[in-house]
Amino acid sequence: MGEVGVMPGKILLVAASLVLAMAMAGCGTNGCSTATPGSTGGPSGGASGGSTPPGGGCSVPGTGGGGNNTQRALVYFMDDDAGQIAAEGLNINAAGTFAPVSNFVPPQMPSQVDDGGIVIVSHKYLYTPLSNASTGGVYGFSIDATTGALSPLNGSPYPVAGLMNQIGVAFSIAADPAGKFVFVADASGITVLAVNPNDGSLTTLNPAAVSTGIGAPQQMSTDGLGKYLYVVDGLSIAQFSYDASGNLTPLGLLSSSITDMAMMTGEPSGKWMLGVRAVLGQGSVQPDKNVYVFAIGSTGALTSAIPTSTPFPPAYVVVSPNDKFVYTFNEDDTDATNPTFLQPIVGFTFNSSSGALTNATPFPDVLSAIGHIDQSGQVIFAAGQSSVATAAGTIPISILSDGSLSASSSHAGLPSFSFAVTDVP
């Protein structure tokens, strides 16, 4: 499915309490431990018993391999204030070390910017839309598979008229599953940029943005097969189809009674879109403890959402690449017993034929309001707090073959909530 970009300001609102938790605990790469997966059933079985710290650095179970000391997965973060991208990597050597990438040099970018998220195409190219008082466009970089270094692409940054001289206005980025196009949505509409498969450079296909017919876009995503694009502004859902040349065709707004999604994501079969409202109980509003599954019609128009009850109010949702499991990242601002308001990750079994979500199973070892799965489907990278870690940060969690999660306190610092994950080919 197309990777999604979320305006960092929205994520900070969703998970603002994590900032306080990190300030109190500190973000670092201190010693950590690995818990043993328990026997709890379901896609997100918890750990039973305690955990024993290994003698040495942080490690992740199930990620061992050759000893060539190269990165198996890379995580990139955008720091708007500094105008920098930070990087962390999971090593494929026997230790499975997860830590900031050594000797990483942030590429030159403007400071004091707003970003609209990060997408990574074909494991090789990274794109992030930026805007401030004097500039605006998509910054593109190639990824060095050995070192994790980022190098500016030819012609970067790529201008997007709707991002020029904008401050504090929501915008978003998404990429289609085949990596042929990058979509940037802002208040003026959607700009489509074609990806050169040879060098990653972008070519604008429609200098005049296609209107969304809704307010400032908070987030967007494609379906899993790369036929349709959906844009949300927190109140409405704008629907589009697109062809092999990247031409967008408006399908109108969804008229269902439930349209106020905070974010949506596709799944590999291309039959469904999943979304959450991220109504977390702020301002005495009753939290929404549901994940919504929309069926994609033959034209790309969505049908009314089917809600599935969850243990906690979801702020973010992801689908495993094998299309068997769904995970929510959760926060309950009415939970007076939890100073961070963050809640455990919850896993579900997903039926891609019927769209049904079943067997909701909390994973109590990690509290998080946002996370991403690597393309291999082996690891969730969650921004949050591990019950056995000394500091909040980015926590890699192994996904076992049955969808259950293997507890890990291996963690590194969290530069921001705007981040993307890629496996190294």
What does this molecule look like?
It contains 2 helices and 32 strands. The protein has a single domain, classed as Methylamine Dehydrogenase, Chain H. The strands form 7 sheets. A 7-stranded antiparallel sheet has the order 25-26-27-28-29-30-31. It is mainly beta and about 425 residues long. Residues about 5-70 have low confidence and may be disordered. The chain has helices at about 10-15, 15-25; strands at about 5, 35, 45-50, 70-80, 85-90, 100, 115, 120, 125-130, 135-145, 150, 160, 170-175, 180-185, 190-195, 200-205, 220, 230, 235-240, 250-255, 265, 270-275, 290-295, 305-310, 315-320, 325-330, 340-350, 355-375, 380-385, 395-400, 405, 420-425.
Feature tags:
425 residues, seven-stranded antiparallel beta sheet, Methylamine Dehydrogenase, Chain H, globular, 4% helix, six-stranded antiparallel beta sheet, 32 strands, mainly beta
Please count the helical segments.
2
Please identify the structural class as seen in this structure. Answer: mainly beta
Straight-line N-to-C gap: 18 Å
CATH top-level class: Mainly Beta
The total count of strands amounts to 32
